[in-house]
Every structure is written in C-alpha cells, then in structure tokens.
Design a protein that fits this description.
Elements (H helix, E strand, L loop, with lengths): L5 H5 L4 H14 L5 E2 L11 H12 L12 H13 L10 E4 L1 H13 L5 E6 L3 H9 L3 E6 L10 H9 L4 E5 L11 H11 L6 E5 L15 H4 L7 E6 L12 E4 L2 H13 L6 H12 L3 H22 L14 E2 L9 E3 L4 E3 L2 H12 L1 E2 L1 E2 L9 E4 L4 H16 L3
Parallel strand pairs: 1-12, 3-4, 3-5, 5-6, 6-7
Antiparallel strand pairs: 2-8, 7-8, 9-14, 10-11, 13-14
Helix pairs in contact: 3-11, 4-11, 5-6, 5-10, 7-8, 12-14
Bound molecules: pyridoxal-5'-phosphate.
Family: Belongs to the class-I pyridoxal-phosphate-dependent aminotransferase family.
EC number: 2.6.1.-
Protein name: Aminotransferase
Length: 401
C-alpha cells in the first residue's frame, strides 16, 4: 500500500460537522432535535440574486473565468468595501475564491513557510488551527477566556508580536463567541500592530454586516490606514447574504498578495463559476434589505438567548454583539450527574453528548474552538424552535445533581 503524505495526518475532520451529523442521525430516527450546532445563517438570498443567476444562465459563456474574479465581481466588491469605509483600493488589490475558507487557505499557502508562526486568539474558528497544521506552520495561541470577554488585549498582542510571528490572524465579529471589538479596542490593538512591521495581518471579518447595538464595524485599517500595506481583509457572502452554499469569498490587501492568490487559484480552482459570480454581484450591488432585516432578527434572538443564559446559576456568557453565536462557559456542570438519566458530565464533550441524548439539543463542544470550558450555541434555528431549545438547555442544568 503506498503511503499518504504526512500533511493528511495533520488534517482533522471538522468537529462541528461531527455533532451536526449525529443530530441529523437522531432526527432521522424520529427524535425531536433542536439544532444549535451548525453555523449557517438559515435564510435564502433575496429574489434579485436568483434573478441575476437566471439571467447569467440565459447568456452562459460556458468558459473558464478570470483567476482573480470577473471585473464585475471585483468592481462590486470595491463598492461594497467603500460602504464599510475601506477606501483607497483598486481592483489590483482584490481577489476571490471558493468561500472565505479557500481564501484563508490560499493566504496560508502564500504567506507561511513550514515552521513559520501564525498567532491568533483562543477561542478561534476551528479551521484556523487545521489550515495551519496542513501547511505545517506553528501556531501561537493567545488565550482569551470568558473572564476577559473572550477578547484579545493590547498587552497580549504586544507579547505575541515580540516573538515576530509571520502572520497575526484576527476575527471580528468572532465565531464562536459573537464578540465584537469596539472602535477604541480596535484602535488600541492597531497602535500595537504599527510597531511590528514584519508581521502580516489577516482580518477575517466575514460577519461584519452582523453587528448589533449600534456598535458599528471597525477594522485596523480604519484606525491606522498605514497598516494597509500588510493587512489582508477577508470577506464572504456566505453569512451576510444567506449564501453559504454558493461559495464566494473575497479579499482586499496589498497588490502582491492579491496577485499571489490569483496565481494559486490558477493552479487549483481556476475561477468561481460564472453564474455564481453574477449572483454575487447582485448580492453586493443590489438592495441590502435582507441582511438588514436578518441583523435585527439575530439581535432579538441574541437577547432571547442571553435572558436564559443569565438566569442559569454558574453559567458565564459574555454578551455577544455580533454574528449569530453565543459561547457560554458551562464548566459549572463538569463533575456532576444528570439526575433523570444518571449520565455523568466530565467535560464539554460529554456535556454536549448528554444534552443531545437527553434533551435533543445539539451544541458544539468548546474544545473544537480551543476552549473546553464552553459550548457554542448557534441561534439561527427557525424562530419557533429557539424558545423551546433554550428552555430545554435551562432544564438540563436544573436536573444536574
Ligand atoms: C470566522 C469564519 N471565517 C471563515 C468562514 C468560512 O466562510 P465561507 O463559507 O466563506 O468559506 C467561516 C464559516 O463558518 C467563519 O465562521
């Protein structure tokens, strides 16, 4: 039997998908399951987006497209960037990919040699760790527990940058915590970043349209425009426009980086399909009422989630201000037994599996995000399911001995 490359031994299947699969299986067996596990926005794109896709089909060229993205796609992204105050770019600064995940993967290929370090906060989005492992980079994990609202401090950033990582990867709003950095917090971190010119900065801000409480979205490039020379902003249509399956990711950064991404694309994906690009243009250039309505809906759902979390003794849940996740620290349950079932809860993994078995509620163990004291609740389920799901979550705690 021929050998695999070592690389594949370092890649892990997604822990989130494993929970989602189990929830799906129980549902297929007839169980009443409420799924808080998968991070999908759970709405479909606006009609104008489907209309643009149909129109594109009617005039299909059937050809390969540009490695960087069509002119129309890049122009639409440029205008979209300007709306969030990221100005001064041209299409030469932009590139696209099959979802933000592939864009980030490409960035890792382009910026990290084997053994280079990439630094990021914990909790982190699961794929950061796995992508780093696949390209054989070292990771410097910067712990940001619930006690510090899951947010990175300027002091932590300074200590990390002193070690000269090749890349600092930042995610705002955050998956899994829903935390959003305010204007002053971003400015304080940006002040540190300017002092370390040898580190690339990637801001994975794909949830930037889902910020609540009038907090606004802020990027290091707003605070210190000089950082643009080494800052790469990553965006995606997946969450903002209800298009995770359409697979459109985008980046804006230095021309040299955009060119490197196009070169990598030319050697694997070639291009995003023409019909998808047409739909993406319509999403960014068309009416923004669907994302705006969803932001209001998610903010109301966040309030519902927090009312329940705040009322459970011992559970600590920093208040999310964006995306559609809450990340309660549930470690108060560890070492206890679920009375009615007699099942013991040792850690986040058994917490999630006992909760799913006994209450039919699926959450993702925090260890998938590097924080084993917590679990992730994704609250985009259909509205009628949210209150009963939360009620079962609270009942579960009340039943612990
Ligand atoms: C923080 C973060 N970055 C990137 C992605 C990937 O998004 P896409 O669907 O565009 O690949 C996700 C998806 O869950 C995410 O949560």
């Amino acid at each position: 039997m021929p050998q695999f490359a070592q690389r594949i031994g370092r890649a892990q299947p997604s822990a989130i998908m494993q929970v989602a699969e189990k929830a799906k299986r129980l549902k297929a067996e007839g169980r009443d399951i409420i799924n808080f596990s998968i991070g999908v926005p759970n709405f479909l794109p606006g009609d104008h987006i489907y209309a643009a896709a149909r129109e594109s089909l009617a005039h299909d060229s059937g050809q390969y497209g540009s490695n960087r993205g069509s002119d129309a796609l890049l122009e639409a992204f440029l205008a979209h960037l300007e709306k969030i105050g990221l100005t001064g770019y041209t299409v030469a600064n932009l590139a696209s990919g099959i979802g933000a995940k592939q864009v980030i993967y490409n960035l890792a290929e382009a910026l990290l040699d084997e053994g280079d370090t990439i630094a990021f906060a914990v909790p982190y989005w699961t794929s950061y760790r796995d992508i780093a492992a696949i390209v054989n980079a070292k990771v410097d994990l910067l712990p940001c527990p619930a006690a510090q609202d899951y947010k990175l401090t300027p002091q932590q950033l300074e200590a990390a940058l002193e070690k000269k990582p090749r890349v600092f990867l930042f995610n705002n709003p955050s998956n899994p915590t829903g935390m959003v950095y305010g204007r002053e917090e971003i400015a304080a971190l940006a002040d540190v970043l300017v002092r370390y010119p040898d580190t690339w900065i990637i801001t994975d801000d794909i949830y930037h349209a889902m910020v609540f409480d009038e907090l606004g979205y802020h990027n290091f490039a707003h605070a210190r425009p000089e950082l643009r020379d080494r800052l790469i902003f990553v965006d995606s249509l997946s969450k903002t426009y209800g298009m995770p399956g359409w697979r459109v990711g985008l980046m804006a950064g230095p021309e040299s980086v955009a060119k490197a991404i196009a070169t990598l694309n030319s050697n694997h994906i070639t291009s995003i399909p023409e019909v998808v690009q047409a739909a993406a243009v319509a999403a960014m250039a068309g009416p923004q009422d669907v994302p705006a309505a969803k932001r209001r809906e998610f903010q109301a759902k966040r309030d519902q989630v927090m009312d329940v979390m705040d009322a459970i003794p011992g559970v600590v849940c920093p208040r999310p201000q964006g995306a559609f996740y809450a990340f309660p620290d549930v470690s108060v349950a560890f070492g206890r037994v679920h009375g009615p079932s007699g099942l013991a809860i040792a850690d986040d993994l058994t917490f999630c599996s006992v909760l799913l078995e006994t209450k039919g509620v699926a959450c993702v163990p925090g260890s998938a995000f590097g924080e084993p004291r917590a679990v992730r609740i994704s609250y985009t389920c259909p509205t009628p399911q949210l209150a009963p799901g939360l009620q079962r979550f609270a009942e579960f705690f009340a039943e612990l001995n």
